Amino acid sequence: MAQRFGPFVVLVANECSNTALFTLFKAATTKGMSDHVFVAYAYAFATILLLPISFLYRRSRVVNPPLSFSILYKTAILGVIGCSSQMLGYAGIKYSSPTLSSAISNLVPVFTFILAIICRVAIVTH
């Protein structure tokens, strides 16, 4: 039963948490909080919440690759892209509403698929 409804529950919980975060951001910035401070608080909260989970549920049979410069470089690039996209998303919420942001965030898989087709990564069968 959990395997059948597990992904659905996780997706609904993710969408609810995103909507709550967007609403909290709009309320905080309306009261005068800076975008940058909110992003820093969000990252700090996520780190405090998620970092202990990674130590509790470590898989012993998976061998991690050695930490190389290439892995560190790619991680840094992903961090910069993720942080900048979050900052741009919050800038959009500042000028519109959290409802619009939640609706637009549902279109991310569509844009990803279109980019995959443009970059010839996705295979489309007729």
TrEMBL record:
One of its GO terms (molecular function) is transmembrane transporter activity. It is a multi-pass membrane protein. The keyword Membrane applies. The keyword Membrane applies. It holds the Pfam family EamA. GO terms for cellular component: membrane. Residues 21-118 form the EamA domain. The chain crosses the membrane at residues 38-57, 69-91, 103-123. Belongs to the drug/metabolite transporter (DMT) superfamily. Plant drug/metabolite exporter (P-DME) (TC 2.A.7.4) family. This is WAT1-related protein. It comes from Lupinus luteus.
